[in-house]
Amino acid sequence: MKISIITPSFNQAEFIERTILSVISQKGDFEIEYIIMDGGSSDDTVQILKEYESRIKKWEFQHNKWVTFIRKSEKDKGQSDAINKWLRVATWDIATYINSDDTYLPWCLHEVVAHLWKSDKMRCYGKCIIIDKQDKEIRKRITSYKNFMGRKYSYGKLLSENFISQMTVFWKRGVMDEIWYFDVDEHLCMDYEYRLRIGQKHNPLYIPRYLANFRFYHTSKSGSRFVRQFGDELRLARKYAKGRYKWSLFLHQLNYYKIIVAYKVLGWLKI
Fold first, then answer.
1. Starting from the edge strand earliest in sequence, which strands make up the sheet with 170-172, in order?
2. Is residue 94's pLDDT more than 60?
3. Confidence (pTM)
4. What kind of fold does domain 2-268 have according to CATH?
């Protein structure tokens, strides 16, 4: 059984090594196909990728002889385009993507195989820890809130708020036959748009364990463009509600203002 993991990257030398190690250090009864699509970085990212490509080929990491490491550095049209390029050629039973500053917890893929692969569900999600640049846990109250929201899934709830952390989401190959690829016109909320599209046909499996770390810092995409990001989420919720789920959209409007205020206060407090 093969899991394909895609990492779109651009000038992430500060974090990319930690992301790579969190993927290739996974242990379990599965193969890993790890694909890094670099968008033409000008920092040390490419050199780091070359180093790990060589080390993996030499089986330097004794526990991961079933890892295939693929890297490519070329210009793309954004994160969605980078992910789509490799989804078209990846060979996998379960797939996902993880950003170049996020990391998996050591048992992540084992839990995904144990739960998702053995179920009739087409996708899954789990719990996520928020960390800073130094890997220290931060924003614990936000984590607790998302854990509370994530315990019970419904499409109406997803339309009211994006409570699922992308780095914990995995899906089976059959999804691609129905849903196809990520929307290249979405640059901040391509994951939310994809989940709303899948959610019209399939409810996910919830894995009640921490699977990954989401790295938050104020110069990241989530940290620096959150007003636009949450505005895009509201726009997408309205699109997929299709005139229905009026209560969910009302809640999403309230949640939009709530989370904008919360992020701004946390930013002022430098938390």
1. 67-73, 31-38, 2-9, 94-97, 170-172, 123-131, 205-215, 103-104
2. yes
3. 0.90
4. Spore Coat Polysaccharide Biosynthesis Protein SpsA; Chain A (3.90.550)
